[in-house]
Amino acid sequence: MTDTTISTTINPTIKSPAAELTIADDTAAPVRGMSPPEAVGRRALLQRFGPLAAGVAGAVALAACDVADAPFDRRHHVARRLTYGANRSTIERIEAIGEAAWLDEQLDPSTLDTSDLDARLAQLPALEMTAIELATNFPGGQTTAAGAQLKLASMIRAVHSPAQLFERMVEFWSDHFNVPALGGNQQILKVVEDRVAIRPNALGRFSDLLVASAQSPAMLVYLDNIESSVNGINENYARELLELHSLGVNGGYTEADVVATARLLTGWGVDPSNGLFIFRQQRHDSSALTIRGWQRPTEGSDLEHGVAFLRHLAEQPETAQFVCTKLARRFVSDSPDPALVDAMVTSWLANDTEIIPVIRTMVAHAAFDAAAGGKFQRPWDFFMNAVRVVDGDVTPVTNISQLANLYAILLGLGQPPFEWPAPNGYPDVEGPWLNSGSLFNRWNLVGDIVSDVIPTISPGLSALRSRLDGLGQRAIYDEVAQTLLAQDTTAGGRFVLDTATGWSSTTTPSPSDIDEALPSIVITLLASADAQYR
Amino acid sequence: MNHTMQLTRRTLLAASAAVGGAAALSELAGPSIARAQAGAPGRVVVIYLRGGQDHLSTAIPYTDAQYYGQRPTIAIPDDRVLDLDGTFGFHPALAGLHALYGEGRVGVVVAAGNPAGDRSHFSAQDLSEYGDVETPDDGFGWIGRHLLATASSSASPFRAVSVGDLVASSLRGFPALGLSTIDGFGLGGRSGATSGGERTFRALYAGNRTIEQYGTSGLDAAEEVGALTGSDNPNPLLQRVDDLVALFAADLGVEVATLDIGGWDTHNAMGDVDTGDMRSQQELLDLTISHLQAGLDAAGQSDVITVVMTEFGRRVAENGSGGTDHGWGSVMLVVGDGAAGGVHGSWPGLSPATIGTRGDVPVVTDYRDVLGEVLSAQTGIDPNVVFPGHSYSSIGVTAV
């Protein structure tokens, strides 16, 4: 048996419309978890949004009014950038222990109490299985259900994990070393890769992560390195290793370097008997070679030579520049300040590719604050943020039919987790995501969350609702805007909200009025242009 | 239809979208705008084959012994190709395309691509969509430049449509419409909770920031799309094709539409003439183009021209796992009534001296000359506006 027996034929390409997890529509599935207050139904909302909406012309005249506004707040900014959503409990935690201590605990997640999260994840047994166990439990056409557990787990972690920055880094590296969980065996191998290669190194050393990725069966299969041998190389992995994982496309390597790298990494494969990495000496090309001035050592084993080259790559200034730019793009700005990237590179090179010092440098840099409110949220960011700020709940399920609605929504938004087909990961700048159709999907998503029609996701608006009785129009709007956006409403924002609620500045709504209006207030605020940014 | 007097808010917003660049581009494009306004603009569909489509499994130089020598297991036998001109033949899975070729409605441009060459998927795709050959980036895609330069000619929110989840980079710089499917487009969602909120959303997005322009033009578009019937084709790609045809047929002002077909990065298991990844990819391509052209013909939209392109072709020699690695020269297709049928462009052959140590099909015809000619033929725009830094020359792939 050769390695190719477990190979799949996934081709890295941009977004093919064929989706793997094509499962039946399941709109009749029971709604799980907490139910919204009786009157907070979508019928009430439809009535609200229908006949009212007075004086739109007046709103147009106001032009470009921000719905909400607040002076710069460092706690809020830090929470919006380093977590999946600045909900009340996050802000309160930063307030209680101070930003420095909060960042310390985020960078050492072993100190955090994850019992609630662990209980949720325990209901997704695929997460802890070996490749062989997965293949046994999810045979043939059932592998999609294994991948679905990982995909749902990433949502549960984003919403409920106290280790928020850790989860954001897992997502970052999952994009950087993108391996889609699409197609038979890749659904299984990605589950293992996430647990074995990505998560243990997400806040560790980049050089360890690079080696773990190179030896990960999911990556070996995805980029064809298992098929590359002394008898015939396959350049696919070698090229992406240099271009996407380390030096960057402008990192100063030649076509000859690509070929030499492929030769150095021949014989790296997967043992089909256990699904683990294996080095096959007989498939390896052990000839002398030079890559960008790095010379193959005369000492050590052929496998060690490949590992040494990967560690060498991780330490190159071009690699530091490339990866730090991507980190700054993810956490700070689509066009990061070169001074910020320089500082991060210095930190990288001075700390043996450790990731934590680089993050600390980034968060402490003046350019971090200067970018507040300017980063367009990717669909996943927007979704997770919306669930967190409404205090929503994600319920683990293993019955794949219950995930149909959720999956259709993620597909519509364009970012189902672990499904970008190309090796470069989902785009991380505004351009590809912002267009005249994508906004509808976001607005509709908020409506769906608030209306509690997505199985596995429940809106938790009851805490917010309990704070609104007896308040007037403006105080209600401000309380909701503070909860969702950590901002007060502007005059223009209140005008727009009035088109949804039918209220005015003199309205003091009754409890039933509030019940009826709250969903439309939440939808309007989360659908606003401001709420698309973090 | 003459849109010149419709100086609506939307037009102004669209024109102001490109801060700075707008004025310069409009100036450059002055005469072209006048030509474009002379009648309804011709329409173009750009199909991008993501991953790097193999030239030598598409337009196959089946009389060349080098081709068979370099590809011992993946070559298409010469008695199986669908002949084009005695030198090239289509892959046998491209039967529908070959029938259109027989009608004189397919121009095949061989050895085409980026003359500078780039073996990275991502920079090669970016460059070909920005309309450049090296790194300079002015923030526009080539179609975006065209649309901006002709911004005063139409106020339709449908001028540029990406049929898919993401908007193609070729449309950068212009507020393009992203539409996955007709049925999924618009307010409502699964709950219907947002369906009545149009006036609130209009008020929310009444400003003139870029995002607000997108929101407003999306709401404008939804009013029109809501009246259309979406396709229920179970094949998601063909569903998109059907929906695209419906948009054209509804006369909404669609000028350029983009569509992607993925799966072309065939590093392994390309297979032989009858089985494997290449066969299934070519079947998908054939199905898509045949379906699109039949749909356009049936809807009376035969004047639409479709261009098919990719980021690079693949290496001449097969690799160690029955596939091909990243190469250079590729095939481009121009399909429709407006195409000049036949094989176009010089073919340099596959001799060792020609393919060189890199082992590539060279690029002889600059991809910008193909795209420029099609866009110019359809809209009257000067290709030099769309491809700054390139001195355009026509290659005769459109019917005069």
Task: Please provide a brief summary of the model.
The complex is a heterodimer of chains A (534) and B (400). With 534 residues, chain A is mostly helical.
Rg over alpha carbons of chain B? 21 Å
Number of distinct beta strands of chain B: 12
**Total number of strands of chain A:** 8
Spatial sequence of strands, sheet with the most strands of chain A: 1-8
Summary keywords:
heterodimer, A: about 525 residues, mainly alpha, two-stranded antiparallel ribbon, two-stranded antiparallel sheet, B: about 400 residues, alpha/beta, Alkaline Phosphatase, subunit A, nine-stranded mixed beta sheet, three-stranded antiparallel beta sheet
Question: How would the blueprint of this fold be written?
Answer:
The complex is a heterodimer of chains A (534) and B (400).
Chain A: H1 42-49, H2 56-62, E1 68-69, H3 74-82, H4 88-97, H5 99-107, H6 115-121, H7 131-137, H8 143-160, H9 164-176, H10 184-198, H11 206-214, H12 217-222, H13 236-245, H14 255-264, E2 268-271, E3 276-279, E4 290-291, E5 294-295, H15 302-315, H16 317-331, H17 338-350, H18 355-364, H19 366-370, H20 379-389, E6 393-394, H21 404-413, H22 430-433, H23 438-450, E7 457-458, H24 462-466, H25 473-485, E8 488-489, H26 491-501, H27 511-527
Antiparallel strand pairs in A: 1-8, 2-3, 4-5, 6-7
Chain B: H1 9-16, H2 21-28, H3 30-36, E1 44-49, E2 59-60, H4 65-70, E3 82-83, E4 89-90, H5 95-102, E5 106-113, H6 121-130, H7 142-149, E6 160-163, E7 177-179, H8 198-204, H9 210-225, H10 236-249, E8 256-261, H11 277-298, E9 305-310, E10 330-335, E11 342-344, H12 352-355, E12 365-366, H13 367-379, H14 383-386
Parallel strand pairs in B: 1-8, 1-9, 5-11, 5-12, 6-7, 6-8
Antiparallel strand pairs in B: 2-4, 3-4, 5-10, 9-10
Helix pairs in contact in B: 5-11, 8-9, 10-11
Structure description:
The complex is a heterodimer of chains A (534) and B (400). Chain A is mostly helical. Helix content of chain A is 52%, strand content 4%. In chain A, the strands form four sheets. In chain A, strands 1-8 form a two-stranded antiparallel sheet. Chain A has a two-stranded antiparallel ribbon with strand order 2-3. A two-stranded antiparallel ribbon of chain A has the order 4-5. In chain A, strand 2 (268-271) and strand 3 (276-279) form a beta hairpin. In chain A, helix 13 (236-245) packs across helix 14 (255-264) and helix 20 packs parallel to helix 23. By secondary structure, chain B is an alpha/beta fold. Chain B has one domain: Alkaline Phosphatase, subunit A (3-Layer(aba) Sandwich), CATH 3.40.720. Chain B contains 14 helices and twelve strands. In chain B, a hairpin with a 5-residue loop joins strand 3 and strand 4 (89-90). The longest helix of chain B is centred in the last third of the chain and has 22 residues, at 277-298. The radius of gyration of chain B is 21 Å and the shape is globular. The two termini of chain B are 23 Å apart. Classes of the chains: A mainly alpha (534), B alpha/beta (400). Chains A and B meet through helix 1, helix 2, helix 13, helix 21 and helix 22 of A and helix 6, strand 7, helix 8, helix 9 and helix 10 of B.
